[in-house]
Amino acid sequence: MPCLNLSTNVNLDGVDTVSIMSEVTSTVAKIMGKPESYVMVLLKGSVPISYGGTVEPAAYGELSSIGGLNPDVNRK
């Protein structure tokens, strides 16, 4: 099962997270060649993140999967 864990230092209050997760689920499924029903997406906001020495808006994503990850998928 592919799982995309997304964290951002942006406050997500008032953001339509359902549509974001739906679009991300569809994209991950398409890239990995898996059914959407197999894809899990976690979206966390207001996470303290520093990138490049600043705390400007940033995000971090980590994709894990048992099977399905290979050099071709990694390029996509």
TrEMBL record:
GO annotations of cellular component type: extracellular space
GO MF term list: phenylpyruvate tautomerase activity
Alphabetical list of Gene3D superfamilies matching this protein: Macrophage Migration Inhibitory Factor (3.30.429.10)
Pfam family, one: MIF
Domain of life from the UniProt record: Eukaryota
SUPFAM superfamilies: Tautomerase/MIF
Family, similarity comment: Belongs to the MIF family.
Protein name per Swiss-Prot or TrEMBL: Macrophage migration inhibitory factor
Species name: Rubroshorea leprosula
Lineage summary: Eukaryota, Viridiplantae, Streptophyta, Embryophyta, Tracheophyta
